[in-house]
Amino acid sequence: MSIKPLSSDKLYRASELNGLAADCKSTKHLTPLDEIVGQERAQQAVEFAMSIKEKGYNIYAIGRNGLGKRTMVLRYLNRHDPNGNGTPLYDWCYVANFEETRSPKVLKLPAGTGNKFKKEIEKLMLRLVKALPLAFDNEMYYSRSETLKNQLTQKQESSLLTLTNEAKENSVSLSLTTQGEYQLVALNGEEPHTEESFAQLSEEEQEQFEETINDLEKKLRGIVRQLTELEEEFSDKIQKLNEEVALDVVVHFIKPLKEAYRGQSEIKAYLKAMQKDILENLDIFLEESEEQVALAYAALDKKMPRRYQVNVLVSQSEQKFPIVVEDSPSYHSIFGYVENATYKGTVFTDFSLIRSGSLHRANGGVLLMDAVKVLERPYVWDGLKRALRARKLNVSSLEREVTLSGTISLEPEDIPLNVKIILFGDYQTYQLLQHYDPDFSELFRVTADFEDEMPRTDESEVQYARFISSIVNDSEMLHCDRKAIARIIDYSSRQADDQNKLSLHSADIANLLRESNYMAKSSKATMIRANHVEQALQSQEKRVSRLKDHVMQTFTNGTTLIDTQGEVVGQINALSVISTTDYQFGAPNRITATTAYGEGEVFDIERNVKLGGSIHSKGVMILSAYLASIFGKAKKIPLTTHLTFEQSYGGVDGDSASMAELCAIVSAFSNSSLRQDVAITGSMNQFGEAQPIGGVNEKIEGFFDVCGIKGRLPTQGVIIPKSNAHNLMLRKDVVAAVEKGEFQIWAISHVTEALEILTGKSAGILSDESGYPLDSVYGQAQVKLNELRV
């Protein structure tokens, strides 16, 4: 045969670490990489978005889980402080709105001053709670209030004395009843008239008394109104006195605070409003009403009246760029919420029960979240868009928004929002948001697209070695020696299914390192070596290969029929990949083709019983087109072919068996036997050219394992497309078998080369005069077809 199998050096590219200095013996001598390797495109996107302060430049980071998206972004943000341009950060506090208690006010304070201001207010209140009662409990206050009370008494007595004397002159007494009411009674000498004595008076005298009493009652009503005015005047004077006394105390204690914050207009305004409110609510401090005072102090710590507390929502302990990772993005955890408190069976709430969300804590910085988790939780996505559009953060009650009930709740003042949102998600979620949400592209204008793999060069291998060093150092593992580094890089290349690529799935590398570290420590080694990495890989495979062992058992006990030696007409060994969620392996499948007189159709049994997928059906149609171009250019092919995967009871999809199917059909047409010690994988186009397929390493290894079960022969091997040669990163035992000449791998570029290997004959080249040579596979098929056409 003219087609030579691949040499063993083409089947595995071992890392030589040529770019690494010869004296670099382990990761101990490597500078750890402080960024994720191979993600320059994504990093540039993040840098671009972070440098633009305008609305809408939020980031959607696309990539599979395990690529290190979050790690890369966090490392970048921690390394390059985006706040280097001096954007100020603030503490945010809620305080009472003394004019409208349902709408608490926001205080914006310089970063780091919120808790300090809160403590200063607490100290002020503790002083006032003690000082105010003392100010009203001294001789000077008692003397001034007593003077006012005496003045009131004198005026009251003076007013009543005039009326009493006038009543006496008219034989009428003015007295105060036990119920506190004034009473005018006619006198009989010095004693009040009884009913009997009054009845003995003449009508004229009775009328005289009634007129007198009526006149006196009118005057009495006027005097009572005057007394009420005097009492109100007294009350006002006492209030004024109280305010004067309290003002002296409050001003004395509050003055240092006003001085300390004289440059901050918001705090000055609040202190002024608080001073006014204290003077209007002195009874809270003087404890005149026990019930009112108890409610005013109702809190977890009964230190000070609730209305004067400062609720520090966000405190920036230092001028450091806020970076917040929200792992559970519920509505309340992102936007904050208002708690309720219970006092003596009564549920109440106020500004001191407002709690911050992650958006509050990230204000002025960055909030990182998982896109799918955000979309899964009710109302979160709409709330996030609303906040980003308005650039305001509102602590609203979710219950009020989603129910029809009119429960009483707070309406806190909005907080200005300046934040970058970074969502991490996969490509499918990104497409759905782009397609179904018109706001998405406006609010998330920057896409950070993370790579799955990177080119494998001497330079990139050095970068990868430094990346391995960073994982080792971060997790405080044993260091890897040079051979262990090379083995991990080889594993990465195998994960990428390409000799010239390295996988960027950092989670896989980190897991392998952890397990290798465990193996090394278990064997009391002081360093991770290549054999520890091999042990970890074997342990990984053993944990997840139950299905593979089960499938291989069916070849061992003969349940699955397969021949790995001899020759058969219309029968071929194709290769497929079986996948679970975390593992995939290869196994051979027998494909058979039978022919009968007919109209030239290829009857795909898998498709007709609905076990074949659309891609498999497309592959059968393509090979049918190739067959028609070879044998049916002048006349219709007089054979119908029935094609099937033997013992296939599940679905079949993919076109990687189309070359195998064509070989089986041509074998049936020409009655040429196909080698059973050779398996084939690869798709083809309408011109018969071999096209690359996936899972080539697993497919080759699967047939190699089955050959070991059925009995190994030096003639056994696998045919693959030439375009898959660079994907080969085979197991060491397969490479060793090829090196010893015990197994072959052929890389072909056309299906005719496969026929040549499988039949031992030339496929045949079409001659315009005589057709295909009679001793070729196509020539024998042409003769048979021509006989049927007669």
Automatic annotation (TrEMBL):
The protein's Enzyme Commission number: 3.4.21.53
Active-site residues, as the UniProt record annotates them: S656, K699
Residue ranges of coiled coil: 199-244
Annotated GO MF terms: ATP binding; ATP-dependent peptidase activity; serine-type endopeptidase activity
Alphabetical GO biological process terms: protein catabolic process; proteolysis
Keyword Protein biosynthesis: no
Keywords assigned: ATP-binding, Coiled coil, Hydrolase, Nucleotide-binding, Protease, Serine protease
Lon proteolytic domain: residues covered: 566-761
Highest taxon of source: Bacteria
EC top class named in words: hydrolase
Substrates-to-products reaction catalysed: Hydrolysis of proteins in presence of ATP
Gene3D superfamilies (UniProt xref): 1.10.8.60, 3.30.230.10, P-loop containing nucleotide triphosphate hydrolases
UniProt similarity note: Belongs to the peptidase S16 family.
Name of this chain's protein: endopeptidase La
Record organism: Photobacterium chitinilyticum
